[in-house]
């Protein structure tokens, strides 16, 4: 009898200790992925963008590589630093008729899916509007929104979310009918 009481007390203590744990159960885990250390992609993308921003319009046209524009949370207004790149794109597109531009809007994971698709599209549309206002023909630019579906990193830190809130540019020589 004493042994069963001791065993019962041990089991109860074990259950209480398990309930008091700070770790959430697998079913209680949030949908947002958490990365323990900062994802190295964040730094790689920052270095890549810094390098690509330094290119001249000529170098951008030759390399066909363009930096991404990152956004503040919930903003569709192009950041002030983006206008230098956009002016280079105007020069590239107005001097090379064979080139076309795809503008891809992306968001972080915060917010619902429909809103993020709208936000990504609004960011891309703002970039297109600026380029068209500077003389680039609208039919040479396509926009796409991917919302939060194409993250560069799963790091949910402020830096990781900032890295994912971006507009990505793709220069192409393909005809629209063969690609889009």
Please name the defining characteristics of this protein.
180 residues, alpha+beta, 60s Ribosomal Protein L30, Chain: A, 4-stranded mixed β-sheet, 47% helix
Question: How would you describe the overall organization of this protein?
Answer:
The protein has a single domain (38-179), classed as OmpA-like domain (60s Ribosomal Protein L30, Chain: A), CATH 3.30.1330.60. The chain is built from seven helices and four strands. The chain has helices spanning 2-19, 40-53, 57-63, 82-95, 113-133, 158-164, 176-179; strands spanning 69-70, 100-106, 141-147, 166-172. A four-stranded mixed β-sheet has the order 1-4-2-3. α5 links the parallel β2 (100-106) and β3 (141-147). α3 (57-63) crosses α4. It is globular, with a radius of gyration of 24 Å. The model is unreliable at 18-29 (pLDDT under 50).
């Amino acid at each position: 009898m004493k042994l069963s009481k001791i065993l019962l007390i041990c089991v109860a203590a074990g259950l209480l200790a398990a309930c008091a744990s700070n770790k959430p159960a697998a079913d209680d885990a949030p949908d947002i992925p958490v990365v323990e250390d900062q994802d190295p992609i964040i730094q790689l993308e920052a270095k890549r963008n810094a390098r690509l921003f330094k290119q001249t319009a000529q170098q951008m046209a030759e390399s066909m590589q363009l930096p991404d524009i990152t956004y503040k949370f919930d903003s569709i207004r192009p950041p002030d630093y983006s206008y230098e790149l956009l002016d280079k794109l105007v020069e590239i597109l107005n001097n090379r008729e064979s080139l076309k531009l795809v503008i891809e809007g992306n968001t972080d994971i915060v917010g619902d899916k429909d809103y993020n698709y709208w936000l990504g599209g609004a960011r891309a549309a703002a970039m297109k509007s600026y380029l068209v206002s500077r003389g680039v023909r609208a039919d040479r630019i396509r926009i796409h929104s991917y919302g939060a579906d194409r993250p560069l990193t799963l790091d949910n830190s402020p830096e990781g979310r900032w890295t994912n809130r971006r507009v990505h540019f793709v220069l192409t020589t393909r005809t629209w009918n063969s690609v889009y």
